[in-house]
Amino acid sequence: MAANNNFDAFAYFEHLGKANKLAQEQGFITCYCSGPESIQGVMQNYRKSSNFIMIDDTTSQNTYSQGVTFFKKEIYTVFIVAGYKYDDMLDRQNKLTLCRRIFRQFHSRMIYDQEAQTFDDQLQYLDINNIFSTELGRYAYNGVTGLYFMVQNDEPTDLEYSEDDWNE
User: Fold this and answer.
1) C-beta of residue 147 within 8 angstroms of C-beta of residue 133
2) Whose CA, among 7, 56, 142, 144, lies 20 to 30 Å from 124?
3) What's the burial of 95, exposed, middle or buried (CB within 10 Å: 0-12/13-18/19+)?
4) Is residue 114 a contact partner of residue 133, using CB atoms and an 8 Å limit?
5) Do the beta carbons of residue 54 and residue 76 sit within 8 Å?
6) What is the per-residue DSSP string for 22-83?
7) pLDDT tens across 63-107, in order?
8) How much is the pTM?
9) Phi-psi domain of 143 (left: phi exceeds 0; alpha: psi -120 through 50; beta: other)
């Protein structure tokens, strides 16, 4: 977790992926990606496992005003994917159900961590009440099923003007 009291979502989701018993029992490897088209973590580990928790190391951001305070909204994306036997729709459904279970366990852990202030209140701005998830279509990735979820974090940000930042 970040030492400066800013939420380090990447470290947090990596921790969840490595600490989840079901994911570990099923051989999920936690790695990073830069969107669904840049899955370098999977490519480095595809011989070890066909199950992955991929944390997207890029975010969408928005800065907005809430009265006199400005906030930085960041949206984090996590993929939970599992390989299934080619052309075996029952295996595909079972793996999709597994990914759904892991997602629900992640969500319940986020709720627990936020309420218990497990990480020194760093999760206080994480919007656990509104998590968007999308399941991968049957033909999205050949032989892989799963889902991705997106979580918003709205933290106050300092936009104080400083003349020292300018040459004029």
Assistant:
1) yes
2) 56
3) buried
4) no
5) no
6) HHHHTT-EEEEESSTT--HHHHHHTTT-SEEEEEES--EEEEEEETTEEEEEEEEEEEEEEE
7) 999 888 899 999 999 999 998 988 888 999 999 999 999 999 999
8) 0.84
9) left
The whole-number pLDDT of residue 3 equals 37
Integer CA distances (angstroms), 128 to 18, 25, 131, 148, in order: 20, 26, 6, 15
Q: Which two tokens stand for residue 151?
A: 């979580």
Residue 127's closest CA among 94, 151, 107?
A: 151
Distance CA 61, CA 96 (A): 29
Question: 């040459």: which residue's tokens?
Answer: 167
Give the whole-angstrom CA distance, residue 142 versus residue 159: 46
Q: Share the mean pLDDT of the chain.
A: 85
Helix (H) / strand (E) element for 19: namely helix 9-19
- Token pair in block for residue 79: 């993929």
Question: Coil, strand or helix: which one is 10?
Answer: helix
- Tokens found for residue 93: 């459904």
Distance separating alpha carbons of residues 50 and 82, to the nearest angstrom: 6
pLDDT, position 34: 80
The amino acid present at 92, given as its one-letter code, is R
